[in-house]
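Something for you to look into today, if you have time. Could you write out one complete protein record for me, on any chain you like? The space below this message is yours for that.
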Amino acid sequence: MALSSVKQIVLLICTTAAMCSSMVYANLSSLTKNDPYPLYTALDPHEFLYQRTKERMKGFGLEICTPERVSISFSAFGQNADRGRDCCNNEVELGDINGRWNMVGLLYGPAPAGQTFAPTLVRAFNVLFPGLTLGTLNDPQYIDPKQRAGFFSIPLKYSKRGLRWDFNAMLFWDIGFNFQGGIADICQKACNHCLNYIRPCPVDALNNTLCNTAPNVCPRFFNLTCSGTSNGDTNPDCGFYFPSLVTPTFNLRNVNDTLMDEVNRITQEIGIDTDDFHKISIEDLRFNIFWRHGWLVNSTRVERNWAEFIAIPFLIVGGSAPTGKIKTPNQPFALPFGNNGHASFGATGGIDFDFVETIEFGGEIGFTKFFARDFCNYPVPTSQYQSGIYPFKTDVRIQPGTNWHFGAKMHAYRFLDRLTAWVQYILLHHEKDCISVKSSNGCTSCGPNDPNSVFMPDVLADISSFKVQVLNVGLTYEVSPNIIFGGLWQAPLSQRNAYRSSTLLFTLAAIF
């Protein structure tokens, strides 16, 4: 195949990918579900200050004969999401990724020693379960299996804007140093979904029919509980019901009146801040050491129709410092500016094959590990039936699971004049966290007689694992031998228990 035809095919592939896609590249992955693979530059992720050396090995002429020693890039980026997928791979609102808010579940389980149920929850329990003792409820038949009756859905909109830098310098031989950081503005707020609420008619209404008494309601939290009829019974037209144990007092009207309509009072009493989140902070700082070396293959076999290429194995070892603001545990809509206070370290290894007459492709595999950290006053469930919102808090130690990632890349250097393109696929998997409740004497595990043994941190650990697949598409243009402009579009291909975030990034880079 002629070289010009190959270049046209590469251009078509890269352009098509850029038109169909949008997300992120980094050697160290992140702990956050909104930005799991942070992006710092639009340059080829395997550039490693090695492009001039590769071109010289191929026998091509260069404007600058000396190899690259230093590069620095500044990138403005924007990231958005309004949907995600939960642990079961269902597309959900962002606020529902860790489970819809189960208001009935707040009445389940015992109260820890030294803590009491919020007054509004006590009143709700006395209305809904007058024959039971508060703190003993553990019957799953009062929980709607469809997660509608007694549940809130939390629609959120997420955006992140910022500036990031990426600095590289060769140290000696084939070993170099990389330093990355940034500053970001994160906003996450509850959306106002306007809808017609079907509420009970007045008692004297004809045939107890349902009425649209509040046609223009725009709630921040979407109440999924179907309204009861005027006499308090279940409305058969709702399409769901409490299975078999609906009592005269435990009905949809009472659930609405005592729990759903009191959500603001309840969150205040249990110390949950439901205000929208908007903050600016520096992000975690990253430091990497990289090694790469190229070997020319088949240079003496070209006449026998063997393709000449350069094999370039590489290894990256690095870590991050937790300099970004952490998430406040009592703010469910807050997000961290990094790994939420956890320092990390990791390594990535791979190999690229740069064919002299066509394109470069390669792959990599890597991991990122995180150090444990203690958190005070952390909301933790006291019942397996609680989700989204929890009535009590305690001190915990969180040991995040390991991140594993695999990447495959294609790179077309100067396929059109001085325009370069690259496409990269990334698969990232975060293993389950280990969450331990700190005992009353400060240890990180609780015995059966410890007051904190009523907490169930495993419920949180079970929803901590996540997986994402993304496609990164980068284009760069050399405006001079030392100055490069670039853009990167990152596409969320699939995710589980994570945001469906998309990212655009624009880079100005200088290489010397």
About this structure: Residues 1-25, 195-217, 228-237 have pLDDT under 50 and may be disordered. The chain has one domain: 3-511.
